[in-house]
Amino acid sequence: VQATGGSSAVSKCSAAAQGYIQDRFLQLLAGRRRRRAPLIHRGYYIRARAVDHCVQDFLLKTQSLPRTQILSLGAGFDSLYFRLKDMGLLHRTVVYEVDFPNVARQKATLIKGVKELSALVGDTGGEGLGAIIFSGKDYKLLGVDLSELSELERTLEEAGLNNEIPTLFIAEVVLTYMENTRSDALIQWAAEHFPQACFLVYEQVLPEDPFGHVMQQHFSQLNTALHSLAQYPDCEAQQRRFLGKGWTECSVMDMNEFFTCCIPEDEQQRVQTLEPFDEYEEWHLKCSHYFVLAASKGMEPSWTPLLPSVTVPCHAGPVGMAGSVPATVCARLSGIPGLRRYGHHSVLIKPNVILTTGGFGEEDGQHCRMRNFHVLSKHAGYWEAACVTQNIPDKRWGERLYHTVSCLSDTLALVIGGRTSPSSAGLGMLWLKFPETCNASGPDDIAVELVSLQPAAESAALRWRHSTTELTFKGEQYLFVYGGRSVLEPVLGDWYFLHTPELSCTVIAVEGPVPESRHSHSACSWEGGVLIAGGLGAAEQPLGSVFFLRELEHGFQWQTIETHPPLVPRYSHTAHVHEGKLLLVGGVWFHASSVPGVTVIDLMTGLCLDYVINVEHLEWPLMLHNHSSAFLPNEKELLVIGGGGNCFSFGTHLNPEPVILSLSSILISH
Fold it and tell me: Residue 557 above 50 pLDDT?
């Protein structure tokens, strides 16, 4: 537990070095420097921002009072005191920090050894005594185990903490490391002993969904189990906890809501453009698994720092489920490491034969961008898989993620776009040629030939997280390339009609309301046109719209498909059409109550039903984003291949095996 403070200081320090947060004191306190990934920077940015937002609000609301105090529990190597002092915000406020004795001693040594820090604290009047490791006029550093409440109380009294003045308690990922009986006692003690008090908490939530399982496993492996989660699994439970322990007001938000509602739009945009970034799913999942809570009692006026400046409808209550869909492991496909990947693409090249390409995953025991292709085929009711060799070890493939593959004949598929790193330009187009007898039953590997294309439709191809869909116009075949993002544009709203087979860009008139720009949406062919659903929009907000690009006599027309109840906004899902129904599989949404399962939209009536996926037969967390899926109409089954991602600092999770979702019970033919 003590080690967590040091590693979070290093992460905050890295975020400050990249301009996410303004804090020159972090470097002085963190000691070692290590550059973290952009996803970690964002995670620590939102944490620092939430805590600062509430602390500054407390200081602002109490600025007319003669004296206030802040008590930071489990403060670690936090720089809060030095920042506030430097900003001139502590004229009437004393900051008390408490941590394990050896953590407090390390910090005291650091402060004494760094002129810039010791100058801010000023005269400390000699060495600290006993548990009072360090004592300045407005800064006291105490070495006490927080779970020993009587000792904590005695030391605080000795250090001069005054029960009668407004006090802000801060617990930033601290209480959850304590046994619940002890953290509950601490929360109740603070309410009982301080007539005017505020309590700020930032920690984890939602242990039981797939991301929550990965998160819990990570902390257990570090020997820092998260105790709060079993008893207080969601934001509502945490709110009830405080209201039941003597606090009269309590508001709570997960970090998706905090980012959207409490951070000004221009600041959101600033943060979103600081570094090349393409891990939206993991960012939003991380944010849904952390909350900020502000409780208070006896404060006049009342302390409510978590009032949204904008209201966001997508954070509304739980999603009603119409039923469940069973998930089972695909027996013959287990143990094939090449199928553990995300950001890849799978395409049916003929009935019961699937080609899977690209993505990031596991090859030869290493995590890397995937070079190998795989063919999956079904024989006598069983799936088999074979690794595909490329005829030439090909640089042109570029180890791409988030590309599309469209099958144009029995032997030819077209790859469009994709990326290597999000900081490099999108990749162009390639033909994939494969033998007519392509399936996984033969003992020999199947050879696939890559053919580069002249940059005929280059602007159409230099993108990723887009969609490519087959459509017909006046009896001719076209590919419709839509949306996505590029190295210059975080979100695209343009489209191209590529006439096949020569792939010339054709201008075809399109009328009707243009859908807002998006990436990570789904697109399906239907009745000669294209159905677009969901996606991530310009402000990194999930979208809930469904559009149909319908063929007219002289061109196409965008039509909005109204769904009721309205489709819950989502992205990073897959989609299929079956007998007039649009099936959406998985994805990421902002609802904490559940993760997206299978949604069925009746395209005639607009009726929209959500089904939860029953994972009781799986022995591992099923992460349904960045996956691929194939729909098998005869069996009314979905084969889900891959999925997962880099789960914040908790490690990479790859769904270990393909999964079959049986839809027969929810797709009853009329």
Answer: yes
CATH topology of domain 323-662: Neuraminidase (2.120.10)
* CATH C-level class of 38-297: alpha beta
What span, in angstroms and rounded, lies between the C-alpha atoms of 252 and 433? 55
Mark out the alpha helices in 443-601 (DSSP H runs). Answer: 458-461
3-state helix, strand, coil in the chain (%, to 5): 25, 30, 40
| Alpha carbons within 13 A on the beta-carbon side of 215 | 22
**To 5 degrees, how large is the angle CA 337–CA 342–CA 343?**
140
**What residues have CB less than 8 Å from 452, skipping those under 6 apart?**
396, 428, 430
For residue 51, which of 246, 355, 305, 226 has the smallest C-alpha distance? 305
Distance between CA 26 and CA 10 in Å, rounded? Answer: 8
Rounded to an integer, what distance in angstroms lies between the CA atom of residue 547 and that of residue 516? 10
Mean pLDDT to the nearest integer, 477-491? 95
For 317-348, write each residue's pLDDT tens digit.
678 899 999 999 998 887 787 899 999 999 99
| 8-state DSSP, 197 | E
The DSSP code sequence of 615-665 is -TT-SS----SS-EEEEETTTTEEEEE--EEE-GGG-EEE-SS-EEEE-TT
DSSP letter assigned to residue 132: E
The domain segmentation of the chain, as residue ranges, is 38-297, 323-662
Q: Is 512 left (phi over 0), alpha (psi -120 to 50) or beta?
A: left
Looking at the DSSP bridge assignments, the partners of residue 368 are: 361
Identify the burial level of 223 via C-beta atoms within 10 angstroms of its C-beta, where 0-12 means exposed, 13-18 middle and 19 or more buried: exposed
Instruction: Count each helix (H run) and each strand (E run) in the chain, helices first.
Output: 15, 38
